[in-house]
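Researcher: Sequence recovery benchmark, item below. Answer with residues only.
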């Protein structure tokens, strides 16, 4: 990770910081114009909406603006963004003046901000909030230049980017469901203004009296601050804008419309792993946004994506079935907006353009999406850059691989990244896994069918070889469906710290030291991995034990973690408390029963915690304790029945012994790591891995090579 970069915002004091102009960044939202001045403008606001905006939401909007601008102004360390590791991730330390520093410096909101933004952009975030002095009034951010009509009182705030997905969402809301909505658009570049206005008019012409209110938001800054194009934090600004407008309307939710394949965003190839595999609408990010804004609002706030189970082709069908196919050409999907011209509104080479072209063909709507709008035709034109060739080929190859998979197990093994998402989706992990698998299977079928369509249309040119030899159609046809493209040599630096499983072996590395492998102490290693993946989060010991045995990504037990010598008393799970003397814990039926019940309990505990039902939460934890006791093979001395208190103590003791044993084994090979773990792991009823200085651990298992 790069050295710490300070971002000093507004009139925040800098006592104790030795500023380095070449390293650190200053940003201001008010005051005189200068190279560090940024401007936030919310346009077309109705005057009735601008009253009584809470201080916490004003702070939220300013924080999000500073984060977004810093994301663009601080480049990632690698000159070549295809090189990862040390150069990719940034260490960003914000000092931001706010109206209520006590709230923003609180542990809960700090944890929500840092963990959510860290996952979103693949960077490390730190926030220090100071008391804001001489703040400008919130009305200073607003332009009251609407036409004076509120178009009926809005029922919903919908984020509208002008791409195909948000266009379909607006059509669903306004034309199909007849909802009164506010469409909120972040306008990152003036190049999109005309196209946005065209779409607004086309929707209004169809909607009549139900015309939605459009609100645009701009963030302007000095051109010298545009250094990094990945802009992963944009959705944080976007959701903060939407939530603030929702609060102004006394609403408690915001809707994004993004197809599930893009939201889950399995990397198609090496160029789009890590922070380059955008997570802007990932379910985990939405869960984090929801937590942040609920804390800011002081009440539950919902972030929704109604299209999470749709493919992009299915999104296009929403548009065509509503009779709005003429709007497709006016929408803009391309991520390379800096390349946009009047003749070519799409580059044709970025992942979004590729996805769009396959989707409109699969939906039989490509006659409404002129190929002339693309600077490069993905199917028939030569590409000069190797990375463009491999991006398109890898996109197609992933579809081929998914199409040929026989079930969920193969899917998870092939694309381990997907395992991150199950716990953040509705329903139990098993049903969520099935829905994700079905989504990607449908998408794979659409991609392959679109390819067949394009080959059929161009078969003469392919056979006569009048198409370029390196275009996608000829590459695909002449290779017999085996993709053959120039490989891009990538420098992939291993993480400085990892504690991950590879088969039956644990691979461990600390502080860029020599890697070690552990072939024993499996149970303790599993516990350690779980703790390291949840830094500074105290976890009740029963949940930790069950969570480490139960893999929520696949919904199965890791049987290798259950040592036969530890099992002295078997349990089975019905719908209630486990019963003793009912068989062996690792038989197939018991594993399935444990899997189902732990899944239910983990979700029920989260729900009870979210609703503040302490009594229900304690009741569920009691049952989790009994299961944890069973997993640890505990029984009373002399065969006497154990009380719940005995079970808690037994689970706690068994956990501590297993972890201590693993740390002792690690210390034999890596003394510094052993000392670090020994001092950082705190035991008790709620074990926690706590360090003064943040350490990022890679804990995802190696399941496919």
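Model:
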């Amino acid at each position: 990770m790069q050295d710490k970069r300070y971002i000093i915002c507004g009139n925040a004091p800098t006592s104790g910081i030795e500023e380095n102009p070449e390293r650190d960044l200053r940003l201001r939202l008010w005051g005189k114009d200068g190279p560090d001045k940024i401007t936030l403008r919310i346009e077309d606001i109705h005057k009735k909406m601008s009253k009584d905006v809470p201080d916490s939401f004003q702070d939220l909007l300013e924080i999000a603006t500073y984060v977004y601008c810093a994301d663009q102004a601080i480049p990632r360390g690698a000159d070549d963004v295809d090189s990862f590791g040390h150069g990719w991730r940034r260490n960003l330390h914000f000092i931001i003046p706010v109206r209520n520093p006590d709230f923003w410096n609180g542990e809960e909101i700090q944890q929500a901000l840092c963990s959510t933004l860290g996952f979103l952009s693949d960077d490390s975030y730190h926030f220090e909030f100071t008391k804001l002095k001489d703040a400008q009034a919130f009305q200073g951010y607003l332009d009251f230049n609407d036409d004076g009509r509120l178009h009926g009182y809005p029922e919903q705030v919908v984020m509208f980017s002008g791409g195909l997905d948000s266009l379909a969402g607006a059509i669903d809301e306004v034309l199909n469901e007849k909802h009164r909505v506010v469409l909120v658009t972040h306008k990152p570049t003036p190049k999109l203004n005309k196209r946005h206005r065209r779409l607004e008019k086309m929707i209004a012409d169809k909607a009549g009296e139900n015309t939605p209110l459009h609100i645009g938001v701009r963030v302007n800054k000095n051109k010298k601050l545009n250094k990094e194009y990945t802009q992963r934090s944009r959705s944080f600004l976007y959701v903060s804008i939407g939530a603030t407008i929702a609060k102004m309307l006394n609403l408690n939710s915001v809707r994004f419309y993004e197809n599930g394949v893009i939201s889950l965003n399995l990397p198609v190839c090496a160029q789009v792993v890590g922070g380059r595999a955008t997570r802007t609408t990932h379910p985990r990010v939405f869960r984090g946004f929801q937590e942040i804004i609920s804390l800011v609002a002081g009440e539950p706030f919902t972030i929704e994506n109604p299209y999470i189970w749709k493919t992009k082709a299915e999104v296009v069908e929403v548009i065509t079935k509503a009779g709005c196919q003429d709007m497709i050409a006016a929408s803009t999907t391309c991520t390379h907006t800096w390349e946009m011209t009047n003749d070519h509104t799409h580059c044709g080479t970025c992942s979004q353009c590729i996805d769009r072209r396959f989707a409109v063909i699969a939906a039989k709507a490509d006659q409404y999406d002129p190929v002339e709008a693309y600077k490069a035709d993905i199917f028939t034109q030569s590409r000069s850059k190797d990375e463009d060739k491999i991006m398109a080929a890898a996109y197609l190859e992933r579809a081929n691989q998914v199409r040929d998979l026989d079930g969920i197990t193969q899917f998870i093994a092939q694309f381990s990244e997907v395992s991150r998402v199950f716990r953040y989706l509705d329903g139990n992990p098993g049903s969520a896994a099935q829905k994700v698998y079905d989504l990607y299977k449908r998408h794979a079928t659409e991609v392959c069918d679109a390819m067949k369509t394009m080959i059929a249309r161009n078969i003469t040119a392919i056979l006569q070889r009048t198409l370029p030899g390196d275009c996608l159609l000829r590459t695909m046809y002449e290779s017999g469906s085996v993709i053959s493209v120039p490989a891009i040599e990538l420098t992939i630096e291993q993480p400085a710290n990892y504690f991950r499983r590879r088969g039956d072996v644990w691979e461990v590395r600390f502080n860029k030291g020599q890697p070690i492998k552990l072939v024993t102490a499996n149970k303790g290693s599993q516990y350690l991995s779980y703790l390291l993946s949840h830094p500074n989060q105290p976890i009740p010991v029963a949940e930790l034990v069950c969570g480490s045995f139960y893999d929520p990504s696949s919904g199965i037990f890791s049987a290798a973690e259950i040592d036969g010598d530890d099992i002295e008393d078997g349990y089975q799970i019905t719908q209630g408390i486990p019963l003793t003397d009912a068989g062996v814990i690792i038989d197939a039926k018991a594993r399935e029963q444990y899997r189902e019940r732990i899944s239910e309990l983990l979700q029920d505990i989260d729900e009870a915690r979210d609703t503040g039902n302490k009594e229900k939460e304690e009741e569920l934890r009691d049952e989790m304790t009994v299961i944890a006791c069973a997993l640890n093979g505990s029984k009373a001395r002399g065969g006497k029945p154990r009380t719940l208190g005995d079970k808690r103590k037994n689970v706690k003791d068994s956990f501590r012994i297993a972890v201590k044993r693993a740390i002792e084994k690690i210390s034999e090979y890596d003394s510094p790591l052993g000392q670090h773990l020994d001092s950082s792991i705190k035991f008790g009823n709620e074990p926690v891995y706590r360090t003064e200085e943040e350490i990022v651990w890679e804990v995802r298992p190696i399941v496919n090579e």
